[in-house]
Design a protein that fits this description.
ABC transporter involved in vitamin B12 uptake, BtuC, two-stranded antiparallel ribbon, ABC-type transport system, permease component, transmembrane, transmembrane helix, membrane
Length: 306
Amino acid sequence: MDMAASLIATTLSAGTPLALASLGLLINEKSGVVNLGAEGMMLMAAVIGFAVALHTGNQWAAFGAGAVTGALMAGALGLLVIWLNTNQYATGLALTLFGAGLSAFIGIDYVGKTLPNFQPWDIPGLSDLPFIGPALFRHHLMVYLTVLLALGLIWFFDRTRAGLVLRAVGESPESAHALGYPVRRIRLLALMCGGALVGVAGAYLSVIYTPLWVQGMTAGRGWIALALTTFATWRPARVLLGAYLFGGVTMLQFFFQGSGVQIPSQFLSMLPYIATIVVLALMSRNPLWIRINMPSSIGKPFTPGG
């Protein structure tokens, strides 16, 4: 029972950065913009967040720095793809390469340094319950905030005027523009808000989840987050479920090793990426389902009057 509770707890912790990044990318894609720069943004936010936490001792300042880093990089991406109409896919890939290289350079002096482990946020009356206490109610506050964020986005997209306008921009920017909405500014704002969440995900990795800085420490999580938005058919609740699913697959390698299962560690490390490929392959068998749920203008440039 203790091992099962530990597996659940580590799954929630491992799934949190994936959920944050995926929800940020979901906001981007709901507005019609594909952000392939998530991996580079997470790396930059990870090193900046780690540096801030190391020098200030304040993890929330680190999260703020990560959010600002992600928002600024997303803003730069937005200026290129929204106003200059550069190719969204090529520009996003360039941003990933830029972020990977610059983060490695900035992080040279931080390699080998560590931060103190965080103190879990115990929920009074619940954290001491047998099994479910250590499994569900002894986590960092960001774990709970991520769940609330997913629920908030469901309400935002379905129940608020701003959310409906954002969805309209992603479905038909021409119609939204004809109704007087500033499509390009809405897309830029959505891109920066989503980028801030991607940045928080990167900071969570280096400040809470690890907590240390290592070059390339995201290990493809930005790409998995991109796959998760498709896997979840652009729905926040499914994003959360998918993030915890992949987080659980990631933790299985340590669970198997601790249980003495004789499986090569290299194969176990491949599990999250194999799961990503398998899920996407299964989904691609029904392209109609993807087309029905995906924003109609995703990846397509928009020029007012063009």
